[in-house]
Amino acid sequence: MKAKKIPGIPLQVKGQFHDTESIQKCENAQEAELKYNVLKERFFDINKWNTYSNENIAEFTLCDSSGNTVHRLPSIGDYIKILLSEIKASGKDSCQWVRIDMIDKTNPNSIMIQCRPSKLPGNQFAGNTVHFHSAGTTSTFIISKGNDYIKMAIYGRNEKPNQNTDIISGIKNMFIAFKGVIGPSKIQWKPLTNGMVNI
User: Given its phi and psi angles, is residue 158 left (phi above 0), alpha (psi -120 to 50 degrees) or beta?
Assistant: First the structure.
């Protein structure tokens, strides 16, 4: 299976990828518009993303360029701090960090937020990437609507283990990334996309 080619999504060049999509059908364009408006509110309230997933895959926290938690619409240059549930359950405080590199609202029927693994906020010129994927990986979150549906999709591209870290973390990242290759990478996102469009 090949990665889908979608405008605005980086081409798949190396490593792994995933295309995770959830669609909810609507009776007509009016219902689609109403539900899309609700979906937009959910989409921009990143701090509440975990509440829409029945499996509670992770906690998502929107942070500013200094790493402080903020409760507002996301902006380019903001960060999302991600604490995976399986890591939280183990009692570890090992968060993953991504930086929002692009927000595209030019299409009236879709909105796109693109992120990539990052160093700690405020430390972009020093330190290591704090994520199990490398800095060349992208995750693109898209919501959209048609005449009879609403949709949320997450597209992961060029997913490679992060080796820009210490030896122990590098081994851990390779293990987590390998788990993603054999299935859980897609499974962990599907409950979120399903829950977001379940309006």
Answer: left
